[in-house]
Amino acid sequence: MNNTMLSDRIEKFILELLNKQSNDELLLKRKDVADLLECAPSQVTYVINTRFSSDNRFIVESRRGSGGYIKISMRPANHTEQVHIPDFNVGIRQKPGRDSAMGKDNPNSIESIEKGLDGYFRMLADYDIITGQEYRLICMMTHTMLEYCPESHRREAAKTMIHRIEWALKGE
């Protein structure tokens, strides 16, 4: 089955369940949804992370473990609450001349790589895998690493860092 079609099915299923709720809040288990739709729980997680974000007016809470759940709720259209996680570049000053000439269009620019990593780090914080303070620390360390890393090695350095973070989180 095409992943795009599966993602659409998962999204449609969750939206239908959410629309049936009287209180705009849905509590579900990843494994139950995966079993019903005959897919892997990781595919359900992917759809929730990509299609049910705060940018799309959703609030997602997750608790891991055997009694774990995912709670998805709709934010009102006029919701103005500040997101509890700061922007990736808050507090980071870019050195003039370094990377600024490269611009946003350069895939090896610090800004471009940080933008890509930010979604991953935010997901870890949103799912309470890391704290807000750890998120900020990782962001600052990432910026420092990228700043001193030769441009031609930045992408590989970022990939290696992600793998090492995953190993550390798994306890390896």
Structure description:
It is a single chain. This protein has 172 residues and is mainly alpha-helical. The chain folds into 2 domains: 3-74, 2-Layer Sandwich (Phenylalanyl-tRNA Synthetase, Chain B, domain 1); 82-172, no CATH class. It has helices at residues 3-20, 30-37, 41-51, 110-126, 132-148, 154-170; strands at residues 25-28, 58-63, 69-74. The model is unreliable at 77-102 (pLDDT under 50).
Summarize this, please?
This protein is mainly alpha-helical.
Helix content: 40-55%
Q: What do the pLDDT scores average to?
A: 76
Question: Can you tell me the residue ranges where pLDDT is under 50 for at least 5 consecutive residues?
Answer: 77-102
Spatial strand arrangement across the major sheet: 1-3-2
How far is the N terminus from the C terminus? 34 Å
Q: Which class best fits the helix and strand makeup? A: mainly alpha
N-to-C series of helices and strands: HEHHEEHHH
- Total number of helical segments? 6
Care to count the β-strands?
Answer: 3
Biggest pleated-sheet summary: 3 strands, antiparallel
Radius of gyration: 18 Å
**How many separate structural domains?**
2
The share of residues in extended strands comes to 5-15%
Shape: elongated
